[in-house]
Design goal:
alpha+beta, three-stranded mixed sheet, 25% helix, globular, 3 strands, 73 residues
């Protein structure tokens, strides 16, 4: 992750890691990574993530995408 040059990719990584509550997430401090400055947009018409300052689809902020799969039990 430290070698990644894409600010959007790193911010999105942390959005997903937080959303899915991975056990290893506690060992990664976003302040240790260059996440750039200023807002970024992943999609048009999305919502600005309050912590990572990136515009993403609304379901990524509301937490609806995780745990609501129709794939069965």
């Amino acid at each position: 992750l430290k070698e990644c040059r894409s600010v959007k990719a790193k911010r999105l990584f942390f959005v997903f890691a937080d959303q899915h509550d991975h056990a290893w997430r506690q060992y990664l401090d976003p302040d240790d990574y260059d996440l750039g400055s200023g807002p970024r947009a992943l999609v048009d018409g999305g919502r600005l993530h309050p912590r990572y300052d990136i515009t993403v689809p609304p379901e990524l902020i509301d937490g609806k995408e995780s745990d609501e799969s129709d794939d069965g039990p």
